[in-house]
Amino acid sequence: MTTTVRTTVLIAEDEPLMRERLEGLLQSCWPDADVVAVAENGNDAWDSFLEHTPQVVFLDIRMPGMTGLEVAQRIGNRAHVVFVTAYDQYAVHAFEAGAVDYLLKPLEQSRLELTVERLCQKLSAPPAALDAILKSLQAALPTPPREKLTWLKATVGKQIKLIDVNEVLFFQSDTKYTRVVLADYEALIRTPIKDLLSGLDEKQFWQIHRNAVVNVKAIAGAHRIDPERLQVTIKGSPESLVVSRAFTHLFRD
Amino acid sequence: MFKSIIQWHRDWETEILAVLADPSLIDTLPKGYRRTTAKHLMQLSAIERQQLREFALTYRGWKGYIALGKLLFLLNVVAVAVHLVFPAKFSLFEALAVTNALGLCSVGGFVGMWFNYRRMPAANLKSFLKVVVLATLGALVGASLSAFLDGRSVAEMMEKIGRTLLIAGLGVGSFYSIIYGAVSTWRNREYEMLTAKLQMQAEQERLDRQLSETRLRLLQAQIEPHFLFNTLGAVQQLAQTESPRAAELTANLITFLRASLGDMRTEQVTLQSELALIEAYLKVMKTRLANRLQFSLCLPPALADVRIPGMLVLTLVENAIKHGIEPALRGGTIDVVVTEQGTHCQIDVRDTGAGESLPTTLGVGLSNLKERVQLAYGTAGSFTLQTLEPSGMLATLRLPLASTHSVTP
């Protein structure tokens, strides 16, 4: 009996019929692939990536929330990325110059087969760094600047509070809600962490876990708890937070 | 000798005509009297130059000589007549000299004034005084000359006719000024009317050009490749799974494409057919976006036959999809509502999508739309955009029910 090597795949595409099509075609021309997650927008795509750490990610460029390019930037060289687009004249030039594969919609089986072939060859090596191609893609398809969050509206007891984002020590997922922890009190908001990310300044707020985002100014220190994970202690709070493997690079010198 | 004079005159004439047609040629002229003359001509306004050029063209070459000949003949006939009527006062020589001098000066002055009337009113008093002084001086010189010829003392002559001379000078000056003033005023009025007419023509041409440019832009590339390829992808998937929705989606796509590719973009359409087109478009989008899009359309039957420029409302709906629904994580609702508001009909396109702030500049689609509304209705039609709470946009078109313009941008 031979054991085949299974490849984990994430699909991010906002239109349900296009998702079905990509999934269906993949099943028929790449039987060794396991589609571990399907995301319908950029924020979900990033969240699913953190949850499943797939080896291959198919990213639609135009999606609600984070665009495919923004998700790819966060993924970096942690997965093999294939971009999917309906029509982006300028992007296609960038792809042709770079090392990243792309698919044009409507999808064609023969073209997908070629992509799968290329992926199978690349899988043994670490994924390519995307910095250069992302830079030229972002120049070709500029994303309008996102408005950053300055205030959060939260219910504390019976009161609606306006919270200055800068005063937040950290955000943490709590089943249905997100905890917003400040120095002297905490509040609950409905917006999940994955949807808060693109509104926060990446330099000031570090995501350290799928479930946690911390204000850099509030970090007192970090120490290793096992070979893969760290733990950070927070100034002005008795709590400590776990840094998952995907984010330990933030604390390296 | 005669030939070379003719040749010289011809060259100069050609040169002046060229400069009148294109003032920039002036720098190519050799320095000297020709250039100086040309520079004087350049002080004329563009219209004056054009008129002078037409005149010069009409009397070019032999025609000019013949006209001059006719004038001289006429003057000399008058001189002979003057001599015959007042044989005691004018010898034949005197009569010839006086009529020719007076006649040529007046005609020369008149031609100058005729083509340089713009500066006349401004220099009216000055030129009046000039004419008076010159006429008086001329009379004095003439009188002195005749006194000298008759062998009488100039002083005695002056004493005798000094006052008469002054009156004659003033009289002639006033006479000329009044005639020239009247003619130049009339020419100026004509000029202003001509300028106004030219300006109106230019404005009309500008409007026509704008209209055809807008039409051209509308006919070019309005179907987004993204829309087309994504929809075809959806058709492909439905066909693959043998879903009956494949046929429905294709039918809606066909309705949309037929209208978008044809002349409908530039024609007047009824609100009913515009909303039917929008329904086809929204059904296509609904198939693609599934539960991320809800929509409703509301058109009172009384307004079904109102005619508006084609694709106007569709542009707003496409915009609501593109900037409202597609970027929104959870999608949203689009409502198209037509209402009658007195003399106007109001079309509201409302979405609950991602829009939170107004765009700083309108995109191609909306600025095109604004231009079309303005071209079709002038100030009677309007287009506004406002944000909704907590998010979304409301685009409103107000169009007069009785269209005053027949153009269809």
Description:
The complex is a heterodimer of chains A (253) and B (409). By secondary structure, chain A is an alpha/beta fold. Chain A has seven helices and 15 strands. Chain A has helices at 16-29, 42-52, 68-75, 89-97, 109-122, 131-140, 193-196, and strands at residues 7-12, 33-39, 56-60, 80-85, 101-104, 151-156, 159-164, 168-174, 177-182, 186-189, 205-209, 212-215, 219-224, 230-234, 240-243. In chain A, strands 2-1-3-4-5 form a five-stranded parallel β-sheet, with helices on both faces. A five-stranded antiparallel β-sheet of chain A has the order 10-9-8-12-11, with no helix packed on it. In chain A, strands 13-14-15 form a three-stranded antiparallel β-sheet, with no helix packed on it. The model of chain A has no long low-confidence stretch (mean pLDDT 90). Chain B is an alpha+beta fold. Chain B is 64% helix and 11% strand. Chain B is built from twelve helices and seven strands. Chain B has a five-stranded mixed β-sheet, with helices on one face. In chain B, strands 1-3 form a two-stranded antiparallel ribbon. In chain B, helix 7 (154-219) crosses helix 12, helix 8 packs antiparallel against helix 9 (245-261) and helix 9 (245-261) packs across helix 10 (271-289). The longest helix of chain B has 66 residues, at 154-219. The mean pLDDT of chain B is 83. Classes of the chains: A alpha/beta (253), B alpha+beta (409). The interface between A and B is medium-sized, with 21 and 25 residues.
